[in-house]
Winged helix DNA-binding domain-containing protein (Micromonospora matsumotoense), 103 residues
Amino acid sequence: MSELDPVIHAQARLRVVVTLATLADGDRITFPRLQELLAMTPGNLSVHLRKLEDAGYVEIDKTHRGRTPTTLVRLSRRGRRAFEEYTENIRALLDPPAPRETR
């Protein structure tokens, strides 16, 4: 059995990744909306997003809507694969294969 990904496994980062994984592949969410959904402070969310970004699991785009700065966040392909592997490993922990009979 593989180990759980420590980047994703931290509770706050797991909540971020789960939320981003609900978006369609390539869809993005604004930082304030993500913050609202997760009930996290801007600083706390920023720290966890940085860790996920450093691992290549999220992509962050800073842009403008009109004159207003906007930060958009999405799960990268690598992040989506890592989350899929993470959930497979959790399922294996929760429902291990039956032991083989010995004769």
Summary: The chain has a mean pLDDT of 93.
